[in-house]
Amino acid sequence: MTAERVEALGDADGPQGLPDIAERVLALSPEGDTEVLLVDADTALTRFANSQVHQNVAERRLSVRVRVILDGRTGVAGTDQLGDDDLREVVDRAVAAARQSQPREGLRLAPPVTVEAPTADPATAEATPDQRADAVEAICRQATARGVDAFGAYSTGVTTYAIANSNGLFLSAPRTIASLQVATIAGEGHGFAARAASRIADIDGAAAGEEAIDKAVRTRHAEAIEPGDYPVVLEPYAVAELVEYLSYIGFSGLSVEEGRTFMRLGEPVTGPAVDIWDDGNDPAGLPMPFDFEGVAKRRVDLVEGGVATGVVHDVASAARAGTESTGHGLPAPNPSGAWATNLFMGAGVAASATELARGIERGVWVTRFWYVNILHPRKSLLTGMTRDGTFLIEDGEVTRPIKNMRFTQSVMDAFATTRGLTATRQVVVGSDYDYTVGLTVPAMQLERFNFTSVTR
Questions:
Q1: What are the tens digits of pLDDT across the range 384-440?
Q2: How many CA atoms within 13 Å lie on the side-chain side of 185?
Q3: To bridge 252 with a disulfide, which of 284, 291, 337, 363 should be the other Cys (CB 3.0-4.6 Å)?
Q4: 27: Cβ–Cβ under 8 A, 6 or more apart, which residues?
Q5: Which residues pair with 180 in a beta bridge?
Q6: What is the C-alpha to C-alpha distance for residues 416 and 268, in angstroms, rounded to an integer?
Q7: Distance CA 62, CA 408 (A)
Q8: 178-186 and 189-197 strand pairing
Q9: Are 383 and 393 in contact (CB under 8 A)?
């Protein structure tokens, strides 16, 4: 790491901090409209395997991404070097890329705006290896006492995002996230649990450990059942996986523009019990007040009472649709369009997921899904497999473990059969790139879910 880079990382608000870096980049851009995105990530991770801590890593990383717009053409280049020559070189590469690209409609920079940035949680930003190790050690002790092997990771830290452009915009905000994931093995039994929050004080590691350990013990000696349509109880991990895929394939203005979405605005697209929205300012999730184009996020109601009521936009898709950006632009280059990354699903009245099972004569309990793939976006048709805790429900009780199964199912058709939702919701971390998708969702009872085969 260069001396210049170390100095720049030392103080995000100092003379070599994020405002200074942004100003230097903009001054080096000779022509066109220029935008600079800075991501300063100060994170740490404690890994554990076979019920022992085996690694602690910490990373301080600052990335610079430059976007230039020339006559309706755009170019993007990035670097993690902060010397004057390095910044000049990345600007030159962005300009060269813009000159060689094809024109695109709706390209423009966001105007200046002010937002109320959340306050970083100092305890999360400054969490020590000992703190994470203590939490992990308690989980590992629980696991060893029950003959279970525990694996996973506990991450903490703060990421500061800054966006500036030649229109005079500059925004900066920190985002603290603590995330714990626990996977467990007990012979043929497997379990899983996760916790995520903006404050490390809200992470209950002991509860997560007990949940994952209990699943591993209970899933031993699983037996296969016949594939088919079953009533199901989906834990929040499974619900979050499905909702994030809905966001990816259908909640954007670009997906509507291209005709590849299940969202028919103003029409029922699923059952009346389903409400889904995106809100980057709600502290109940993992808040982020602006997007990667410098547009303030606002709440977007996507599905209300089963009716498709809105989609999210970035600057380009909003311009083509004759509306305004909702603050959901992703880092350029981004051919996928806007993405809802602070998702919420409305809650119900059930006291627990166990209560949801009581009305089911014979059904399936699903902890989570994996290996999910898209089959037909306009039908919200996905396929994937259950994992880490699949059980048979008989006469309202969770009775015995069953082997994992593959599903092939239209998500919105399944959600149309919603028969119950828990009153409490859980924060689940979704995709994690330069940004982290947060989903705050309940457990669900669905009347029908199609399982097509038993997995090995």
A1: 999 999 999 999 999 999 999 999 999 999 999 999 999 999 999 998 766 789 999
A2: 8
A3: 337
A4: none
A5: 154, 195
A6: 10
A7: 41
A8: antiparallel
A9: no
